[in-house]
Amino acid sequence: MKGFNHKDLLGMEQLSVSDIELILDTAESMKEISQRDIKKVPTLRGKSIINFFYEPSTRTRASFEMAAKRLSADTISLSSSGTSMTKGETLIDTAKNLQAMNPDLIVLRHSSSGAPHLLASEVRAGIINAGDGTNEHPTQALLDLFTIKEKKGKLQGLKVAIIGDIKHSRVARSNIIGLKKMGAEVTISGPPTMIPMMSGSLGVNVVNNPSEAIKGKDVIMVLRIQLERQSKLLFPTLREYSTYFGISRETLKNTKEGAIIMHPGPINRGVELASDVADGPFSVILEQVTNGVAVRMALLYLLIGGHKSDVMD
Amino acid sequence: MTLWIRGGDLVDPIKGYIEKQDIIIEDGRISRILPSGVFSEKADRITVIEASGRLIIPGMIDMHVHLREPGYEYKETIETGSMAGVAGGFTGLACMPNTDPTNDNVSVTEFILRQAAKAGKLKVYPIAAITKGRKGESLAEFGDLKKAGAVGVSDDGSPVVNSELMRRALEYARYHELTVISHCEEISLSAEGVMHEGMVSTKIGLKGIPSASEEIMVEREISLARLTGCPVHIAHVSTAGSVNAIRRAKEDGVPVTAETAPHYFTLDHTEVMGYNTNAKINPPLRTAEDVAFIKKGLAEDVIDVIATDHAPHSLLEKNLEFDKAAFGIIGLETALPLTLGLVREGVLTIQTAVKKLTHAPSSILRIDSGVIQEGAIADLAVIDPEFEYTLHEEDIISKGKNTPFIGKKLRGRNILTITEGQIVWSRDSKNIGCR
User: Fold this and answer.
1) A174 with A138: CB under 8 angstroms?
2) Which CATH number does the domain housing residue A24 bear?
């Protein structure tokens, strides 16, 4: 069996093509477990996992929790409001205290880019990056790759458009890295204020007009407009955003037959994505969520499961 | 006590020569400079400093440091900063006013000078605030500050946002013979940025500070200097665009001077990869192209001065998430080897390099220092330009250990420092003997 020689999953950047293939293959068997009547296997019995969420999250947090429980790991969940972080403790101090309880894995969601990297250098437990600032969200990218592969049978040679606030999106960044590694071609699109400087360095095409960008694409990934962290400087109003950059049935007229619509959630219905499209026949949005559990089970297994203990030393 | 520095090569940054000369120091002043081998005193109380194979340079003047006292003594004190300074070859430091309380009044200026005298290692030249509390609202009392010993004014760390206030500061400061030093940053454009906006910030998902946020303010200061005819000094130049703007201004005869820091001609933004908070500085490390322009600016004398922007922080402020960590790195103990790097690369001659660390800042601040000549106050350093070593954290004298150069190879270092005729620091006591 091919090995997965990582203590942490900090980003797509660190994964090789064979690492990604191994994760996706493992996720396939994990998905089967999730479809059984008794959705639980003893694989991670006796392992403990801390889900540490500094930023609010419903989907990712529930998904990690579900994944861990299906593998029989013990989990606890912490959020910044319920921890000493609100009392002024530093991230490293909090982490060292958690480390002292000897967990096997810490799943971290944090508003600062690079926070999981800092943690990984300070604690023995493995770290999974569940989204750091505007840097990466590798488990989202992996579940997206899994979903695309499931629908299209392959990743190599596919054409993918990512639409929305690319600049501030960790989902976009991880997906771009992952898709490129797997041989897909990526086009990004959105208002010029949301396209990062030097996009060329990411190895993507830039097409500002979404209707143009989705032409001939196999996959259309629509990003959430982050109302909570968007300054008023990036676009005038939500109404104008949806008019010029939202994806509607009308925009989709240009697209290739069989193209799938993805969204990492939560959706702002009627802003970046029209309701009828989100619920329409080409949408795989809820399947993404289902696959998220399987992909996270695969990662937990590969990082701390079974015969991996030698890697941890 | 008489000192005899024997057999070294004297670098004169003004006359621009290097010659084997002996230097005799008596009563705190340089009494004689004479060709090697001529002097042969038999006096008992003469201390001989063997300097053959070494360079003798004027004591270096750093016109941009943060000594953190009063208020942030856990980061650095005037005493520890002085020790780091003399270890690095400096005999004069101009300290910025972002202390707590702010140095915007006579009592803080006097306190700084008292602490410096108590430390007794080198001369400290206080830079006072342009505006009260560095708030950008009203001018500090320049007249009293000057009388108390301030040599310049700056709201360093933040710019004076109000352009009329900055104009009045330039006009009023000239009357009191205070140098105005501007930290150039258009705050609304750098916003919450934490590193240079470019390829690396895009790759690792950190908010960028565009070069334009420095350049806009450089252009404003140049416009105000042109309007008023009053001199302005641009702090820590980091971008190609700033170099070009200052070059044009100088060609037009606008009274502008500028400094850069060794990290801006040595490192670029790739240093931040891996979220290295010891590479988090404001202005940020820019691109390799900017580094090349900074070097060109130094070579063509567009940039007059090399200053460190020595900004000590404790681990508490650096061992954090990147966006929460403090801006700034220390520089006193690495300025000399990094500047000598430019000499080895052929960017600067040794004489110009030394000038940018000595006479150039002295003349901008109007202080009596930075020269080696008979009758002058004996502030000087004996350096070994070729010594190679790796910088280890435990060898750093400053309280702050926040530098990206830890673990890196450096070449050239200071051996001995003399302030006002006293040996205030010596790396190796065995080459100082009494006859």
Assistant:
1) yes
2) 3.40.50.1370
Q: Domain B2-56+376-384+413-434: which topology?
A: Urease, subunit C; domain 1 (2.30.40)
How far, in Å, CA of B273 to CA of B404, rounded? 12
Looking at CA atoms only, how far is residue A288 from chain B in angstroms?
A: 24
- Nearest beta carbon to residue A113 from set B210, B316, B322: B322
What are the two backbone dihedrals, phi and then psi, of residue A308, each rounded to the nearest 5 degrees?
-90, -5
Task: Output the furthest CA–CA distance in chain B (Å, rounded).
Answer: 69
A32 burial via Cβ count (<10 Å: 0-12, 13-18, 19+): exposed
Residue A204 shares a structural domain with residue A232: yes
Task: Select from A290, A275, A152 the least CA-distant residue to A222.
Answer: A275
Residues of B in contact with A136 (CB under 8 A): 205
**Position A33 in a domain:** yes
Q: What is the pLDDT of residue B17?
A: 84
What are A165-201's pLDDT values in tens digits?
Answer: 999 999 999 999 999 999 999 999 999 999 998 888 8
One domain for residues A299 and A270: no
Interface test with A, best of B321, B322, B323 (most A CBs within 10 A): B321
Are B381 and B412 in contact, with CB atoms under 8 Å apart? Answer: no
Residues A45 and A142 occupy one common structural domain: no
How far the first Cα of chain A sits from its last, in Å, is: 20
One domain for residues A69 and A169: no
- A250 and A224 fall within a common domain: yes
Q: Assess if residue A6 is contained within a domain.
A: no
Q: Which amino acid is at B230?
A: C
CB–CB contact A90 B320 (8 Å): yes
What is the spatial distance between Cα A41 and Cα A67, in angstroms, rounded to a whole number? 11
Parts of chain B with a pLDDT under 50: 431, 433-435
Query: How many Cα atoms within 13 Å fall on the side-chain side of residue B9?
Result: 14
- To 10 degrees, the CA torsion angle through B340, B342, B348, B354? -30
Residue in B201, B202, B205 nearest the CB of A136 = B205
What's the topology of domain B58-364? TIM Barrel (3.20.20)
Domain boundaries, chain B: 2-56+376-384+413-434, 58-364
Q: Are residues A131 and A182 both part of a single domain? A: no
pLDDT for A269-306, tens place per residue? 999 999 999 999 999 999 999 999 999 999 999 999 86
Task: For an interface test with A, give the residue of B196, B201, B207, B275 to mutate (most A CBs within 10 A).
Answer: B275
What domain range includes position A268? Answer: 138-287
Q: How far is CA B378 from CA A81, A268, B103, B360, in A?
A: 60, 72, 29, 18
Residues of A in contact with B316 (CB under 8 A): 90
Domain count, chain A: 2
Catalytic, out of B22, B104, B290, B309: B309
What pLDDT score does A308 carry? 44
Numbered residues of chain B with Cβ closer than 8 Å to any chain A Cβ? 197-199, 201-208, 210, 274-275, 316, 319-324
Catalytic residue list contains B144: no
B56 SS3 class: strand
**Residue positions counted in chain A:** 313
Same domain flag for A153 and A232:
yes
**What is this model's ipTM?**
0.90
| Min distance B318 CA to chain A CA atoms (Å) | 11
Which distant-in-sequence residues (6+ apart) come within 8 Å of B110 by Cβ?
Answer: B148, B149
Task: Please state the rounded mean pLDDT for residues A138-142.
Answer: 98
Cβ neighbors of B277 (< 8 A, separation 6 or more) are B318, B319, B320, B322, B325, B402
